[in-house]
Amino acid sequence: xxxxxxxxxxxxxxxxxxxxxxxxxxxxxxxxxxxxxxxxxxxxxxxxxxxxxxxxxxxxxxxxxxxxxxxxxxxxxxxxxxxxxxxxxxxxxxxxxxxxxxxxxxxxxxxxxxxxxxxxxxxxxxxxxxxxxxxxxxxxxxxxxxxxxxxxxxxxxxxxxxxxxxxxxxxxxxxxxxxxxxxxxxxxxxxxxxxxxxxxxxxxxxxxxxxxxxxxxxxxxxxxxxxxxxxxxxxxxxxxxxxxxxxxxxxxxxxxxxxxxxxxxxxxxxxxxxxxxxxxxxxxxxxxxxxxxxxxxxxxxxxxxxxxxxxxxxxxxxxxxxxxxxxxxxxxxxxxxxxxxxxxxxxxxxxxxxxxxxxxxxxxxxxxxxxxxxxxxxxxxxxxxxxxxxxxxxxxxxx
Length: 399
Ligand code: GLV
Ligand code: MN
Ligand code: MN
Ligand code: MN
Prior knowledge:
Layout: H1 4-15, H2 34-49, E1 54-56, E2 62-66, E3 74-80, H3 93-108, E4 117-122, H4 135-141, H5 146-150, H6 160-164, H7 173-176, E5 179-187, H8 192-196, E6 200-206, E7 209-217, E8 221-222, H9 234-252, E9 255-264, E10 270-271, E11 274-282, H10 286-307, E12 310-319, E13 322-323, H11 326-336, E14 340-343, H12 348-352, E15 358-363, H13 379-397
Bound molecules: glyoxylic acid and manganese (II) ion (3 copies).
The site of glyoxylic acid (GLV) has 4 residues, from loops.
């Protein structure tokens, strides 16, 4: 009999090649593109093998049911398949693979749920293709309107509705109402578990966070003939804003990142006409986050005046502070004898937490790195994650 770590590895190896970029070793698994569609087909196959009927909700989210899909009080577990550009292997898929293995563990132990147990895969969690993170869970819960989601476009101009093959269905209170709890298992995206020498933790909260697009408009002109004093160069305003964001975040013990930029016309010998930078900002407290973004905006606007450029600022997404169900987190931490941690990363669990009792489990990541090919987890820790998830599901769905 192969042990759980071996069974994890065998199932994991089925997914490992899908969407991997040989050059970087990272993953390009954008929502509803070929690699992600392949993983969705894998999901259906895994569900089939376990006689779990699959339901797609009209927003691109998949649910595989152990128990009657028409029944209420179901316990949902799962995560997402999509990745950031050149992302790690574990962010997302670990929660889905672990969910199927937890079902196997319960069945092997002869445990039968008294309420349905559902494995879910949410679409476009990272927002890497259409710009809004947790798009699938936001649609299901009604936190984004179907009309707005339908017209979000990827870099090639394809809309979410076109990628989905239909206009998204939007809020589905009937389906949502059938879930009594959600548990998302996820690779840890920091080093807290390495430092605490523990394989698994329970989440307490998700920092409030969001994405802001800074468009700096200037005057495109010749790099060789335009006197320095005559320039209206938006690259300068952009560069100053990146430094200001870093400084303001450090002052507040918050996080600010500018990791995506678009330059027009993007030519070596032309002063740009426009530079767009995307600010990802996060903080432990909503007021700190608000203060951070406002300070960056004010500094950018002041600098724009100096540079003769113009700034337009657009909030592309905002996620409020999520405090996971405190009673549930305590109960699971006691059950698993695991530490409890907050995180600065966004998750579908954060969206669902506003609608139903929700918990997260984190699995130790030896590098502490995520959203990068260096993200990692050992098979032994992944097995510990499956064991923990099975115990949690038994507690929530089988008693
Ligand atoms: C998603 O993983 C995010 O936190 O950006
Ligand atoms: Mn992620
Ligand atoms: Mn994730
Ligand atoms: Mn995430």
